[in-house]
Amino acid sequence: MWFASDGPGTDAFLREIGRQRPDLEALRYFNQRLAAGYDLRPRLDEIRTPTLILNGAADFFGPQISARELIAIPGSRAVMLPDAGHWPFAETPERLHARL
To answer: Which residue from 9, 13, 61, 76 has the fewest beta carbons nearer than 10 Å?
Structure first.
């Protein structure tokens, strides 16, 4: 699940997500029909609200790249959360809340 480390927050998150069942038809529809044309990066400069970009430094998906791209939102600010992966709200909620 792309956590930076294990701990009570990640354990609780995994227990909760384990109770949920994904909608496989919706996922299939997105992957087959929408994902290829879902790149909205050229329109980021249209966002007109203060934007805080929070990324876990150990995120598997490459947060440094996404933060550099999302900074195209006018007036945005990017913050890297150390010791967090893709789920900083579960791994380091205190750091996430402090930044918010």
So the answer is: 61
